[in-house]
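Encode chain A's predicted structure.
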Amino acid sequence: ELCYLHKTELLLEADYGEMTTINKGVPGDTSFMGLARLEEDLQGIDAYYFLTMFGTNDVTRLRFDLDEITEVLRTIVTRARTDYGMFPVISTIPPQKKMVNGEWVQQFPGRTIDLNAAIIQMATANNVPYIDSYTAFFNSPDYTWIELLEPFKGNHPGALGHDIMAALFKEKIEAAPPK
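Encoded structure for chain A:
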């Protein structure tokens, strides 16, 4: 119930009626793993929107190839659109935090910034709507980016971060209602 997918569903139900989200996220998966299971995950699903966010686990790996990751993400959203008739919306990844000398600091900031720029560029070039979770976390008027991440590990959004992402996804979905 705390995930942005469910929260997006709740926000949209107020205007559009009952709906169901299907969360196919797998903790620890990289974008490559997501692509490998794409057909299995989407086969037989009758859905209009395809909301996706991959990359957090990619930036934490020793092997980080920005071009390969970007191509995998392009393939995922393109296949969702062309092979399954879904309307893809992709998200940049939020920052990650780690404890250093008793303080939270941003982990992998260079990789995260580079990947997010590549996600935005890929989405724009392929006419895929996107949300910029990373920037939204840093521009929140009410919370610090640290408060928007899960309290213990820091590689994923916390409840407040999921609220922000849900509101951003809601905006993109409302801008492109189902036909």
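The radius of gyration is 16 Å.
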